[in-house]
Amino acid sequence: MLPILFLLFLLISCTHASIPEICVANLKGPQTPAGYTCKDTTKVTVEDYVFAGLAKAGNTTNIIKAAVTPGFVGQFPGLNGLGLSLARLDLAHGGVIPFHTHPGASEVLIVLRGAITAGFVSSANTVYLKRLRKGDAMAFPQGLLHFQLNSGKSHAIAVVSFSSPDPGLQITDFALFANNLPSALIEEATFLDDAQVKKLKGVLGGTG
Fold first, then answer.
1. 179 and 103 share a domain?
2. Is 155 annotated as a binding residue?
3. Which of 14, 38, 131, 140 could bond 146 through an S-S bridge, CB–CB 3.0 to 4.6 Å?
């Protein structure tokens, strides 16, 4: 019995020892599906684990009147391998983050200022919609289409957290109308007419 327990102890110890305690992202190295390779631990500093980007408002003078300031592994190397990241969301009056997905992560949004109407659509096409106020939080499951819009009268601010250091992003409107996908194909796939497709391509910079 004792030899078996000893072998189990060795196995657990070796397995645990093979997982590095610190693996700050080496942003100059390759990024793999498992994350970045580890920075030399002798060169790791506390600054690798600190991110000051949430203090500054993003630039909302754009077509969606919104800005996202990411604190992903590329900006916050200490997150490498930890399975989380965050970002600041600024929505000017009338601002919107259009329907989009994060292929690599679920999301939690916490409203810090103003009012934000947010929602997502399940794979069964069930809509989950809520007007959120300061202090409210809402979760968005991984991969599902969701959006946020400013439904108040002033600038809105939120912090979002993700279950991955690199959650990925695809905005549906940009995927359809900000590239060179032929208009005829978009019209067949979306049931929109030619005038609508050409208008949206013109607004978002698409061609074809």
1. no
2. no
3. 140
